[in-house]
Amino acid sequence: MPTSNQNTLDRWPPAKRGSRSGLGLRERRVLLFIGDVIAFGLAAALSFLGWAIFVVAVPSISAVAFAFGPIMFIVLLAWVGTLVATGSYDLRFGVMSLLQIIQHTFIATLVVLLGYVLLFFISAPLANSNHVLSLDLSWLAPFGLPRFVIVAMLWLATLSTITWRMAYARFFCRAHFQWRVLIVDPSPHDSLAAHLLHDRLGSDYALMGSITAEQALTLNVAAVPKLLDMVQQNSIDEIIIASDIEFDGLLRQVIEDCHQLGVRVTPLPIFYEQLTQMVPILSIGKQWYVALPFQNTPPLGFDLFKRLIDIVVACVGLLGLAVILPLLGLLIKLDNAGSIFFRQERLGLYGKRFGVWKLRTMKSMNDVASQQTQTLAQTSDPRITRVGRWMRRIRLDELPQLINVLRGEMSLVGPRPDPLAFAEEWKAHVPFYRLRLSVKPSMTGWAQVNYGYVVSIDDAIAKLQYDLYYIKHRSLSLDMLILAKTIGVVLGMKGR
Predict the structure, then answer these.
(1) What is the spatial distance between Cα 442 and Cα 307, in angstroms, rounded to a whole number?
(2) Which residue in 7, 113, 207, 472 is a FRET match for 190, CA 20 to 30 A apart?
(3) Cβ count within 10 A of residue 301
(4) 349 vs 225: CA distance, rounded Å
(5) Which domains does the chain have, with CATH numbers?
(6) Calpha distance 401→346 (Å, rounded)
């Protein structure tokens, strides 16, 4: 039998919401990507148009566009790929500063330019080529490889992209486009959501108000229209609900009405995950199930395709390692006497132990306990050799792990395996740690490209939050993103 309050609520129609204009994180990423592509396209059009009109005689502008379409597409992919690798679409920390924008675009320009120069030197001339290393790339550029045009285009793309990003920061961070949120929390001003939004307010997020749990749970029929009017008048885009609030009675009715108005209603752990791309294992409260990956299964055939990629890359990588290993081995020996390789036990899939291989980067040690810290030492550690410090920066020391990948003990992308001694300790003290053992360990992962190495319990917790996010959302696109960001770490010599 419905109560009088329930009957009143059923008769009370939800208010109509104001026009929505806020931009969410996904919308902002898409907007930035489209703007970058348009900026690159304008730079390419101006460069080739000027070349076609003032430098060479071509049948028509459309003929030039058709002829250079393939090479322009390749250059565009390399350009955007470099921007992805450097984190240009990473909005976890809000809008990028002007210095970051300039840095990312200049890196993209230099990487693509160096790649194009290399392509030019290994490509065959249009006639009478006697080079040993020469590729016939005439299908890419029937009129020849326009070196100066490519250089001009890349620098124009740099200027146009910086201009676009500055315009985005100035225009799309106005109040009209900010994502407007309302917090329902026992202590809204000290809540985790408020802390997450603290540094982003005034840029891409706007905190429009807060309601304590007591206020929410003591709502009466007269207060419901007032709350919905607040949602309507402030054009709220999202309501964030704290982890320990029960959905019952009038609060549930209000939430349903807000959802009917098109307002996103998000539990705090999910909001944290969306904003930081981490799973908040210490702040999930009663919603402990959000840490589990059972609701997020990868697409059909993902594991098989991932394994095929692992095998192909491992074979190619081991061939490359075989070429440079004599030189690396000589440098390791000359720098510090001892073995070239280092083997250490790790925990793998379902907790199975296996031996991981690396190139030795530390001074030869007989103490097994000291060797356990081989991979956890900081770059300033005096035990690291000079050659080892250099190899760590570009992660050359991890190439022998391709043997583990080929044997199926590891994958290219996933959670990094922890040394056995640390893993046993963290299983006992870090909640949900065993969940990371549900997938194969890897050479690189979401935690490595976003956080780095682990030296303490706090580091292990932070790393696990990234690993659980990967396990919940693993897909081919996320794997490609991690590989791209790994290349960015290597190129930036940010390894430790």
Answers:
(1) 12
(2) 472
(3) 10
(4) 53
(5) 4-21+175-276 (3.40.50.10700), 25-171 (no CATH), 302-491 (no CATH)
(6) 12
